[in-house]
């Protein structure tokens, strides 16, 4: 179904909310997915606030290598994405697909 919508074979998935129940992992692996984790959570699921933007700034560090931006809250993510991108560029990080680094 995902391929029909995106015209792209999805191989890697991150389970929601940083939760990795064994039954969910088993189910995803049976479907052929590779489970990934994140080292920096955008916390955009918390809702919109100026404090949320500062949480990105405080969370970004040179050792972080993956930022989770939650698509289930697209309006909030879209609202703060320009600020997030500025913070990422300021630290000279660059966006990429997870599949590019594996």
TrEMBL record:
The lineage of its organism: Eukaryota, Fungi, Fungi incertae sedis, Microsporidia, Mitosporidium. SUPFAM superfamilies: Glycoside hydrolase/deacetylase. This is Polysaccharide deacetylase. It comes from the Eukaryota. One of its GO terms (biological process) is carbohydrate metabolic process. InterPro entries: Glyco_hydro/deAcase_b/a-brl (IPR011330). Gene3D superfamilies: Glycoside hydrolase/deacetylase.
């Amino acid at each position: 179904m995902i391929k029909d919508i995106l015209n792209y074979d999805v191989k890697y998935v991150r389970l929601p909310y940083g939760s990795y129940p064994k039954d969910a992992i088993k189910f995803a692996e049976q479907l052929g997915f590779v489970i990934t984790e994140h080292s920096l959570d955008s916390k955009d699921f918390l809702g919109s606030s100026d404090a949320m933007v500062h949480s990105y700034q405080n969370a970004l560090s040179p050792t972080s290598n993956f930022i989770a931006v939650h698509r289930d809250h697209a309006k909030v993510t879209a609202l703060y994405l320009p600020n997030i991108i500025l913070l990422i560029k300021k630290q000279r990080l660059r966006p990429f697909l997870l599949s590019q680094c594996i």
